[in-house]
Each structure stands twice: as structure tokens, then as C-alpha cells.
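[Meeting: bench + compute handoff]

Bench side (C.D.) handed over the final construct sequence. Compute side (W.E.) agreed to return the predicted structure before the next meeting so the bench team could plan truncations. Sequence as handed over:
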Amino acid sequence: MLSTLKHILEMIRFSHTLFALPFALLAAVMAWTAPTPDGDQIGFRWLHLVGVAACMVSARSAAMAFNRIADRNIDAQNPRTKSRHIPIGALSVRSVWLFTLASSVGFVASTLLFLPNPLPLFFSVPVLLFVLSYSYAKRYTALSHFWLGTSLMFAPAGVWVALRGELLMVALSDALPALSLGAAVLLWVAGFDMIYACQDVEFDVKAKLHSVPAKLGVVGALRLAAVCHLGMIAALVALPILSPQLPLGWIYWCGIAAVAVLLLYEHAIVKPDDLTRVNIAFFHVNSIVSIGLFLIGTLDLLT
């Protein structure tokens, strides 16, 4: 059992939860510190923090495990992925299905931590189905990168609904901070997923899979990824402008500048004729972006 669990954690790349979790936590800090209509704050609650972490970890685990099940035959044919756990027999489809179901149940159950707010529980199954359906998007549309981005956008948006649901039902405008941050996450993820997909462009074309690199070529994909990342910076700039009630100041603006520099570096090290540093751009730079933005945003909000 320990060996199976070890293989499952390797398969879902548990450490990569760092990509989306910091944005969910930043949304939580924003939700706690943003004033209510009467001028108060909803304030920090340990139970809500546990709920945010539990929902994030369980939803991502379910999505990654389901993706490995859905793509097992494709992975077996792709030279880059043929050594993944299911194709080589390190994990059985049955064991991964059980883990997927357990994670899915865990996600829905975790939304109960936000009661008496019923919205997280109400939206849990539709959101989960949307996130899981991403695994089949590449078979039908090159917009699959944006499908993945939308799936991760649910992290900050879902946190806002969970923590400020009662306020949202009174005034939808209260969601503007979460929508700005969510748009930044969507464009950021779509952009770096296009860069990552450049590694499989030849296989995608041969297998008749849809992706931006397969449709536009590597050069076109890298250019569109750059446009997405420019849009991410625009969304981050719009956040304090659209949400003047949030106490974001010069620390946050310095953080945006640092993120812009990191994204420029990411695009500088990935060349159309040299994709050997894609993993550095994908894993290292993006981890720094997400964790760094969370730390800088939290520091600014709390000081």
C-alpha cells in the first residue's frame, strides 16, 4: 500500500499543487481583509483555511489522476510520456480509479467546512465535472489550454464564493477582486501550458490531437503564450484599480514588476528551435511566480 501511495503521489506530481494553491490562499487573504458593506472584515478562521487547502489538494489530485486514466493509451504512444506509471504497469487502472473517486468525494466533503454557506457544496459537483472534463478537451479543441486555465481559475473564484458567499448574494460587484485574480490565473496557466505543449507538437499532429502548437506551430504558440502572459500582467494591474477597497500598495506593485521580469525570462529561455529548457520555465519559474505573488500580496494586505 505504501508503494502504491508513493507511485500515486509521483503520478499526480503532488508537489505541483504549488502552482494553484498560492493563488487560492491569496484569494483567501483578500477575502478576509476586504471590507464588508458595513466597514468590517469577515476575518480569519482556521476552519476556512483548512477547507481551502483540503478543497485544493483533493480537486487537483482527482483531476490529475483522472487525466492519467483518460490519457493512458495516448501516453503509451507518446515517447515523452510512455514511461508514466500506468503505461509501464507501476499502477493499475483500478487503483488510480479508486484514488480518483476518493479524491472526488474528499473534495465534495471538504466544502461542508464552509457551512452554513451552502454555495460551495452546491457548486462542487459541477465544478469538479468541468475540471475532470479537461482531460478530453485536447481531443476536440485547441482551446484546451484555456480549459485548463479556467479550471485553475476556479481556485481563487471558489475561495471567494466560499468565504464571502452571503455578500455576493447581496452585491455581485463584491466578486471583482476574485474575477481579476481569476483572469490572471487563467491567462497565466493557458500561456505556460502552450509552452509546455510545444514539446509534443509532432506527436499531437500525428495523433490528430488539438493544441495550439499543433494548430499554429511552435513559433505561433510561443507568441500566443506571450500575449496570454501580457494579459496576466494586465489583470494583475487591474486588480487594485477595480478593487480600491483592498489595501494594496507599493509592495504589490513591486511584486507585479517582479512577475513581469520572471515571465520575460521564461520566454527568453524557450526558443522555437531549442525547447530543452521548457521544464525550467514550466516548473521552476512558474513556482516562483505563484509563491512569490502570494507572499508579496499577503505581506502588502496584512501590513
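W.E. noted at the follow-up: The mean pLDDT is 91. C.D. will use this when planning the next construct.
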